[in-house]
Amino acid sequence: MKRIHIKKYISTVLLASLLIGCSDILEETPRGIYTPEYFKTEKGVIGGVTSLYANLRYVYGNGYWLNACETGTDEYTYGHGADGNYKDLDLSGVGSITPSSSRADVLWNRAYSDINTANGIIENAVEVKTISAALVAEARFFRAFDYFMLVQTFGGVPLDLGSGELKFNVSTSRFSARNTVPEVYTKAIFPDLVIAINDLPDAGRVTGGITKTAARLFLAKAYLTYGWWLENPKNIPTYPETTRTDLDGHDAQWYYQQAYNVATTAIDNPGPFGLQQTYYDVNLAQNDRNKEMLLYADHTESSEYYDGESSHSYNTGTSPGNFAVWMVTWDYTFLESAPNTDWSGTKIRSVQREAAQAYGRPWKCMAPTIDVVKKTFNDKTNDSRYDGTFVTSFRGNWDKGGVKNEFLYNANGIKVYPGDAILSFLDEEPATNIDYSNSVYKSNVGAGILPGRADFVIAPSGISRYAYPNLWKIGTYRTDNGTGLGQPNGSITRPFPVAKFSELYLVAAEAAVKGAVTVSGKSARELVNVLRARAGIWRWSNNGNKAKVQDNSAAMIAATPATITIDYILAERSREFYGEGYRWHDLVRTQKWGELAATYEICGTAVGDHTPVKVTRDIQAYHYLRPIPQGQIDGMEMPAAEKAAYQNPGYK
Description:
By secondary structure, the chain is of the alpha+beta class. It contains 18 helices and 17 strands. A 3-stranded mixed β-sheet has the order 7-10-11, with no helix packed on it. The protein starts with 41 loop residues before the first helix and ends in a 6-residue tail after the last helix.
C-alpha cells in the first residue's frame, strides 16, 4: 500500500490544552507528538480538538494564502511592491504559476496535520467514556473542512496518510497515492458533515465553537461545489482523471437541491446566529465575534503566548500571526502636507502608520483593479458595502506621531487639522478634470487637486498599482494605542473571518439558479434581496467619518434584476465578501474564472501614473487546479514517473 509523507507535520504538531468555560482564547501548550494512547484520554481529545481551532491561524490571516485566493481574480492584481509570488498568480504576462510559487502550500502543509489529528480523535475517542459525541463531531467538522478546502484547490487528494483511508498515522512514509474527487467528497466530506450536523449543538461549546449552523453551511457549500463539478459545463479537466460520475448514483441536480435544502434549513434554524443590522457592523473591529460570524481564526491582544507566540510589536510576516491585510495596503505613509502656506520647504508626513483599522502596515503587494471600483461596486449611493469594505479617505494623524503643528496646509494651500482628509479616492469620476500635474501644490504620491478642496484626490480611473483604496474590513485594530500610533507592525490581534451566516443566503440562491426547487419566500431573488436590503441600511459613513442614518433598502430591492443569474450571484458574493479569500474558489467552482477575470484595467507602478491600461490574463483550463507544492513532490521517495503523475497536469 502506498503511503503519504506530509513533510514534518504528522510527527511534529502544535497541541493545545483544555478550553476552559466560554473563553475567547485558545489556550495552547506545545506538545511534540500525538499517539493513539494520548487520544484515548479526555485531556488528549480536548487538546487535539483545541489544536484544530488554533491551527486555523496558520492559513486564515496568512497573507500568502490571501494572495493565493485573490490575486489573478477579478478582485485583485499585483501591487507595485509585489514579488514573484504575486506576479506569477496574476497570469498577466509577468510570471507563471509554478509548484514553488503558487503559495497553495500554505493550505497543503497545514491541512494534513489537522486531518491526521482529527483521524486520531475520531478513531480513539470512543474509548473515553467522558467524551461526548458533540466533541468528536467538532473533529469530524474540521476533517471535512480541510478535505473540502484541499479538493477545491488541488483536485483529488490522499485519504490514506499511511495507515489506511481516514486512519490515524503515526509512522513516517514517503509514498503517496491521490484519491479521485468523487472519493474525497463521498468518503470523507459528506459523511463527516452529516454526522457533525446530527451531533453538534445549536450554540457552541465555547465562544467561536463549531455548531450545527456552521456545519450546515459547509455541507450546503460542498453539495453545491460537487454539483458544479459533476455538471462541468465548460469541460474543465479534473485530476486524477476520472469520469464525472457520483459514487452514490446521484446527478448534479440532486446535489443542487440538497445544497438549497440544507442552506435554507440553516436559515430557518439559526440558533444564536443571524445577520447584523448593517453591513458596517459586520466588519467593524469593535464588533468582532458578532452573531454573523460562524467560524473565525481567533486572536487575542491580551497575550502573545495565547496568540500563538506571535509578536504584537513586530511580526515578520509569519503564521500564526494575522498579517493578511498588509498585503493589500498601499504605502499611504508617504503622504505629506506643508507647515507653511507657500508650500515651500520640508514637508511633514501627515498620515502616519497607525494601528487603526484604516491604516496599519503597508506591504503594497496586491491592488484592486479599476473595474472593482467602477463595476463591482457601481452603486455607492444606496449600497453601503463599498464604504464598509474600503478605506478611501486618508486622514491626518500627525499629532499622534508627536508632531506639534496644530494645522498643516494641504491641497490648494488650504488648512487641514488632525482628522481631516489628506487624500481621498473619489467614488465617481468628477465633473471637473483633476489636475494631477499642479506645480504649486504638488502631491508627492502623485495625487491631484480639485478647486476648493483641501484634500488631494484620485479618481477611480486613476487607481494604480502604486496608490489604491485599502481594505478596511480586515484592518488592524488595537485597544492599547492610548493617544499615540500604537503598534502597527505587530501581528493583527483581531479574529480573521472564515465563514459568515450571510453566505447561507447566497449558497441557497446559487443552488436555486442552478435549478433547485424553491419554497415560498426563498426564491433566488428573495434570498439575494435579504442581503441587498441590509446593504441599503446605513448608520455611519466610514469614509465620511460621520453618522449617516439612511434606509435605502427599498431602492436596493427595486434595483435587483427580475431574473438572477450566476454572474449576478458572483457579483453579490464579491460585494459581500470582497478580499476575504473567497474569490478564486468562487470563480473556479462556477467555471467563470477565465471569463470574469480575463481582463482588467489599472494604472502602472510609477508614482503619479494615472493612465489606465487594459491587461489581459492567460488563464488556461489546467489553472483551475493549483499545483501540488514542490516541497511535497521533493519529499516523496518514489520513481520519477510516479512523482510526475502525482503532479497536476500543466505543472509537470
